Amino acid sequence: AGGKEAALFTAEVFHMYQNYSAFRRWEFEVLSVDTSDGGGYRHASAALSGVGVFGRMKHESGVHRVQRVPATETQGRLHTSTMTVVTLPQPLKIDASLNMNDIKVETFRAAGAGGQHVNTTDSAVRLTHLPTGITVSMQDERSQHKNRAKGLKILCARVYDSKKRVVDEQLTAERKRQIGTAERSERIRTYNYPQDRVTDHRLGLTVYGVSKFLVGSELLDSVTSALKVEEEASSLATLLQSMEQR
Amino acid sequence: RVLVYRPLGARQTSALTIARALKRKWVKALQAEGIPEPELAVKYIVDHLTRSTNLHVGASLDDLVSRAESMLEQRRRRTPLQYIIGEWDFRNVTLKMKAPVLIPRPETEQLVDRVLTSCRLASRGDDGWVWFLDVGCGSGAISVALLAECPQLRGVAIDVSTEAVDLTRENAIMNNVHERLDVIHTTIGNCSTLTFGGRLFDILVSNPPYIPSRVLAGLDPEVLWFEDHRALEGGPDGLRVTAEVLDVAQSIVRKGG
User: Fold this and answer.
1) What are the phi and psi torsion angles at A132 (to 5°)?
2) Are A136 and A155 in contact (CB under 8 A)?
3) A118 shares contact with chain B (CB less than 8 Å)
4) What is the mean pLDDT of residues A129-141?
5) Which of A177, B60, B185, B207 has a Cα at 20 to 30 A from B195?
6) b/e string for B208-222 if b means 16 or more Cβ within 10 A?
7) Residue spans of alpha helices (H) in chain B
């Protein structure tokens, strides 16, 4: 938030994570970047994968605040800008295959006996995917066998689309929720240039060397490690507490 | 949303025009006679006539309409649609249809599925083939579909009807599987004495008549008046022919087949 300066800071933080991924030997795939004139990023997103990614990156969610004299500032005044980080777990691959047990197949049935007893030209097939209720009717072909095969292809595609939509909606909802929470909360970390320090407010921990921090190697790593330890300690404490209460 | 306009080709325009002209008149006429599936009759007749292979050069709309009308009149007299059109699809193949040879039923498509599973599991014999015997082949639907879908198969098809034997041979040629199929005019009883080249079959498949005699008279005219009763009637309990097939099976099918 806050125009060009914030966009510049956003880009710096994004690059910090990019370098950090290399440092931790994770894969970093840029998904989208929305640049602003002035050389910063309005939004940017990336997909990270590797060992322990989510455990460390989840603590980066929240508002990061920078205090410095911006490059654009002509009168040397100190500015405060913020940017928000959202971390979402990557969805598992959607299973595109259909289990035939989940599918109901309906075909022409003469009232009474079928088979040799009746002559029919009705080769229509209706397939229902029971778990989702998605239905496909097919009557293009004269052979029921062909209608079945065609119908299954379409059903497969529709079920996949539906599953994907559910996953996409969940991601969007979670993203909205995190942004909402971040905007209503205090900043999680301040990058103070005049005093050349980075403070993580959750730990009350200060590290010196803002530029070095933004390089995204040992300094950032020490902070994420500390946050991890803190999380483990507090969940251990909660566990002990609940045991004592019994 | 983008609407894509694809101009109709000549064939589709003709089909639509004819179909519209005929539908109202004939669906009513057919329904009045109690003919089942009247809309499908119009649809398939028009579709068949307007398929490019059936469109004569210079055929006018009037020609097509009058041909359609004469076919629909046959339908009004209960002739099965498949006999009127002279062909039908079975699984992935197209077969010629000719009265009184039995018209393949959709359920039989699933019978072929089951046989295919066995085929794929069977190991090839010394001559490199998996052999099947189709008892009561009719139009050849089962044999031709099997051969078309499983290249490691060879077979023998038999029927008591000469029309069926002829039709099966035609359909095998039409679908280019005739080199792997022998069609023989004979009875089930004869099977145990026929040597078939001294071979035992890996698979015996049959869709024998199974309708109990007393039920036959109550069937729709499409079946009763036009299809070969020898392909339908199975004695008092419907199982006479099935029993004969099973009797003979022991001597024709190899161990484990």
Assistant:
1) -105, -15
2) yes
3) yes
4) 93
5) B207
6) bbbbeeeebeebbeb
7) 10-32, 38-50, 61-76, 81-85, 107-121, 141-149, 162-174, 188-191, 213-216, 221-224, 240-252
Give me the residue label for tokens 């497969």: A156
User: Residue B1 carries which DSSP code?
Assistant: -
For B54-101, the pLDDT digits (tens) are 666 666 777 788 888 999 999 999 999 999 999 999 999 999 999 999
Asked whether residue B249 carries a pLDDT value surpassing 60, the answer given is yes
- Which ipTM was obtained for this model? 0.86
Phi, psi of B217 (to 5 degrees): -60, -25
Q: Is the peptide bond before B100 cis (omega within 30 degrees of 0)?
A: yes
Token pair, residue B177, equals: 């599987």
In a 3-state reduction of DSSP, which class is residue B248?
Answer: helix
Q: Which amino acid belongs to residue B223?
A: V
From chain B, the residues in CB contact with A141 under 8 A are: 89
Among the listed residues A62, A58, A55, the one whose alpha carbon sits nearest the alpha carbon of residue A87? A58
Contacts of A69 (CB under 8 A, 6+ apart): A76, A77, A78, A79, A193
Eight-class DSSP state of B123: P
For all residues of chain B together, what is the average pLDDT?
87
Q: Is A202 on the interface with B (CB under 8 A)?
A: no
Interchain pair A119, B102: CB under 8 A: no
Size of interface A-B (CB pairs under 8 A): 63
β-pair partners for A164 = none
**Predicted TM-score (pTM) of this structure:** 0.76
Average of pLDDT values for B145-159?
94
Query: Which string of DSSP letters, residue by residue, matches B148-198?
Result: HH-TTEEEEEEES-HHHHHHHHHHHHHTT-GGGEEEEE--HHHHTT--GGG
Angle between helical axes of B141-149 and B162-174 (0-180°, round to 10): 20
* Crossing angle for the helix pair B141-149 and B107-121, to the nearest 10 degrees: 40
Contact A121 B210 (CB under 8 A): no
Q: Alpha-carbon distance B152 to B124, whole Å?
A: 8
Q: What is the pLDDT of residue B1?
A: 45
